[in-house]
From TrEMBL:
It is found in: Virion. The keyword Nucleotide-binding does not apply. GO terms for biological process: symbiont entry into host cell; virion attachment to host cell. This is Phage tail protein. It holds the Pfam family Phage_fiber_2. Transmembrane segments: none annotated. It comes from Salmonella newport. Residues 283-305 are annotated as: Disordered. Keywords: Host-virus interaction. Its main location: virion. Residues 287-305 have a biased composition (Basic and acidic residues).
Length: 370
């Protein structure tokens, strides 16, 4: 059977808070495994926090509720993503002052984390405190209610589904504009502010970030993870790492995803490795790049579109070549130098010489209608 008490330290601190008009704020739970603890014996009201080596977990208050004017409840939810540890001592305190307000001695209990096929457990612990004016002094206005439900697995599943859907749209990584572009000013390398996706997680760099490059060649990596606590707002955390090689990894139970945004050679030259835009845009860009680099383009014909070779030849009868401006000019000059049929010789510049040339006369003197 568990034993509970409100400490004398809390009563003294509460009186001080009331004298100064400050609220009675209890905001942290502490879990400990105290050797030799007897849960059936009354708790000493002068008891303090166990030694640091016996404390196994600390967590912020998950929920506060008012029962009536003289009773308030503080609760903590240990989700399936917390563990593994055992505890038999729980304390509720004011974190800023370190004031221990309430203590529970309990039989030894286990807190297991969901991992590698093992289903973790979800524990909810609530401390009901009764004293005159409790609601007014704590400022708690939310009615107490039941929230003993394991929603961590479902929420994690929703987050993972969203991440995978983003990968369907953006691929392994995607960047927009100059976001996360590695640049250089003098000898200083930097990463440009902007937005990108890595493994479906959206990350934004608010300001340009200088980076230190001590050895070359090397790569610049963007490292992202999705993190938070059971009751906090979750978000993407990111950082830049300069290293030869880096792979996805797990740290403190949090999955990290990495992507190389740039390579720097021994001379300090930068190669941009960022995929641009959505997955469809990336695929279109890659296809165009491969097409430009290919030498196996189809030739154009009079029936099919394709690539053609240019030619300045004015005597060719080929239907596989395209005329250059030079060939077109030669044809135009040729055409402009010819006589008009319908002019009947009226456009001949030297009519007398023309008559001699064609043998129309033998005399060197000839009179033509002028």
């Amino acid at each position: 059977m568990s034993q509970t008490t409100i400490t004398r330290a809390f009563e003294q601190w509460k009186a001080q808070q009331g004298a100064t008009g400050e609220p009675v704020l209890l905001d942290e739970f502490v879990f400990a495994n105290v050797p030799g603890l007897e849960p059936d014996r009354p708790v000493d009201r002068n008891e303090t926090l166990p030694p640091a080596e016996q404390i196994v977990h600390r967590q912020a208050v998950s929920r506060k509720g008012v029962v009536n004017d003289n009773a308030v409840v503080h609760s903590v939810v240990l989700g399936a993503d917390v563990g593994d540890f055992s505890f038999n001592w729980i304390g509720l305190l004011n974190k800023a002052s370190g004031t221990l307000a309430m203590i529970v001695h309990a039989p030894l209990q286990q807190k297991l984390k969901t991992a590698e096929g093992q289903q973790g457990n979800v524990l909810t612990r609530s401390f009901l405190m009764e004293y005159n004016g409790a609601q007014a002094e704590t400022g708690i206005n939310t009615p107490a209610e039941s929230w003993q439900i394991d929603f961590t697995a479902r929420m994690a599943g929703m987050d993972e589904r969203q991440r995978l859907e983003n990968i369907d749209i953006f691929g392994a990584a995607a960047f927009f504009g100059d976001g996360y572009l590695v640049g250089k000013s003098g000898n200083q390398f930097y990463v440009t502010k902007g937005t990108g996706y890595v493994a479906g997680l959206r990350t934004t760099l608010a300001e340009n970030l200088n980076i230190t490059v001590t050895t070359r060649p090397v790569k610049v990596w963007l490292d992202v993870c999705w993190t938070g606590t059971l009751t906090s707002v979750w978000g993407v955390q990111s950082r830049i790492t300069v290293a030869d090689n880096l792979a996805d990894y797990v740290q403190n139970g949090v999955q990290h995803y990495v992507f190389a945004v740039a390579g720097i050679d021994e001379n300090g030259n930068i190669t941009d490795l960022r995929p641009k835009g959505t997955l469809n845009e990336q695929q279109a860009s890659d296809a165009l790049r491969k097409h430009e680099q290919s030498r196996n383009h189809p030739d154009a014909t009079t029936r099919e579109k394709g690539f053609v070779q240019l030619s300045s030849d004015t005597n060719s009868e080929s239907e596989m070549l395209a005329a250059t401006p030079k060939a077109v000019k030669a044809a135009m000059d040729n055409a402009n130098g010819r006589l008009e049929k319908n002019s009947n010789g009226g456009d001949i510049p030297d009519k007398k010489q023309f008559a001699r040339t064609i043998g129309a006369v033998t005399s060197t003197t000839i009179t033509l209608g002028e």
